[in-house]
Amino acid sequence: MRKKIVVISLTLLLGIMAFWAYYSNYELRLVPNKPHLRPGENTPAPKELKKEFELSGGSERDNRGFPQRKIEDLVSKFPDLFYRQGANDVKKVALTFDDGPDSVYTPQILDILRDNNVKGTFFLIGNRAKLFPEVVQRMVKEGHIVGNHSMTHPNIIKLNKTQTAKEIKECEDVLRSLTGYRTALFRSPYGSLNSEKVQEIAQLKVKIIAWNVDSLDWKSLTAEQVKDNILENVREGSVILQHASGSKEENLTGSVAALKDIIKVLKKEGYQFVTVSELLKIPHKK
Ligand SMILES: [Zn+2]
To answer: What digits encode the pLDDT tens for the residues 126-138?
Structure first.
């Protein structure tokens, strides 16, 4: 009798779990390289613990991993709107940094770029730019260009047309007040996009910039792993993706540490570092 009760309860429990798994958005997945704690000197600063600093769509880690094929489709479908690489016959590459600014990692990246006389492209989150205006002003002063990465970093394919436009326009206004220009470049949070969204966003008179070399640094990788991911995949015309800031638990120490070496190796191989706008031959201002 007792055995029977145990069997029935277990079956019921499994049934409830299966029902929940089927009807909730739960999905099983393997995420390698679980983030380790940030080392002391890179712990989040007080402003980075504020609600406005959070990514409204959740961490990069929980949202990324769309199929590469989809990006290819958008490039061929919208050749004048959607870009992921420059001409492949010139030894030029563009370093791009998403999700900044912050007061921990972004200044370290700016120091390295300045010391190596390299200009980069920063896709900024409006809410974070409001928290760290001086970091944005430093970017402009040191010759980098900034692009729009939305106001709050939502997953835009989950938004309607009005909400999408609001995210982009609000960020554009914040960046304009800090840089003096309206950016004509937009990068979608988590790289999440579809044809419908590309057409909506095009009405806001911005070009959409993706990438073709992903450092995968949002997985809190070591410097060695970040370096390998970039150097093994880079070629003429590459748009390289790294992050200038993350969520609280994300550790970008490895990504920052890798940057100096990446610049050194690529310079030695004869590559020139340019902004995305120069690489793609499109204006960065409206
Ligand atoms: Zn992002």
So the answer is: 999 999 999 999 9
